[in-house]
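Q: Protein A?
A:
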Amino acid sequence: GDISRNCTEEGWSEPFPHYYDACGFDENETESDNQDYYYLSVKALYTVGYSTSLVSLTTAMVILCRFRKLHCTRNFIHMNLFVSFILRAISVFIKDGVLYAEQDGNHCFISTVECKAVMVFFHYCVMSNYFWLFIEGLYLFTLLVETFFPERRYFYWYTIIGWGTPTICVTVWAVLRLHFDDTGCWDMNDNTALWWVIKGPVVGSIMINFVLFIGIIVILVQKLQSPDIGGNESSIYFSCVQKCYCKPKRANQHSCKMSELSTITLRLARSTLLLIPLFGIHYTVFAFSPENVSKRERLVFELGLGSFQGFVVAVLYCFLNGEVR
């Protein structure tokens, strides 16, 4: 809210309304012990989750960067996803350090350039994370649909989508916020119209990812249930197998058995098929609801369970990767 003071003959008057009233905070109002315990539990949960994710993702990045035989377009996409999760975890710790540095402090008073910059960085990292999850689903879908797949050209566009789109959206949001809603530390999103500049593209990527998930399942079922694979379909299978591995394959591998090709294709699809519902469905539950609705449940899903996303990604895309083992 707005706070003003009048210049009188006796000097400046007291601020009106009071800081606590303007910020919607009652100095005499105390939360129940159960609510305090709940929020402390959620914070402890996501602190453990992001710490675990940060360690596992850093280890996975070292492994993928260390061995040259693992350098290929598929793993480059995985590495970008790892980086987005690492940045997300770091941004959460920085945000907590800035907003809640003092245990008894009221962050409603904070309104500095540094604090706002931290929130811009935080939203960028979160948005980039969702877009690289979308890229993973898009990559697998393209892999199964396209017969000839120019990976380098596609990877160029993937990079633009994954890092460029969040840059544009967050920049637009920051400019609009600066001109139309420059209050507090930008950690509250009371202006719904401005918040949808960030939330809209994220929700859109999640919805498209879910559609890709359904499409991938349909394609895999059709291919794997086919009793007789013709020449064209066989070449499609072999093309997919070539793209699943970083090392080039020889021509005599066209003689691979159908069961072997199916196993390889399913192994490639397994990680992304698990990630799309795991990291998308939980967000769509609250995607179109107001920010103040189901706040407790939203905290558990987005902060508690969501903090372990990076750990699951590292396990699926690195530690359980047959090439790494």
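Q: Protein B?
A:
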Amino acid sequence: MDFDDIINEFHLNLNKYIASLTDKDQRNLLDFDQSDIYKESMNRIN
């Protein structure tokens, strides 16, 4: 299993997880992109 396989598997599982959530939870997940935690994490990575 190479790195691409691992990433693809991760995305597949992530999409399954998101699909299993309710609409409200999905909206909260989308809102997370705008959250301070997310921005702080991105700043640390970059």
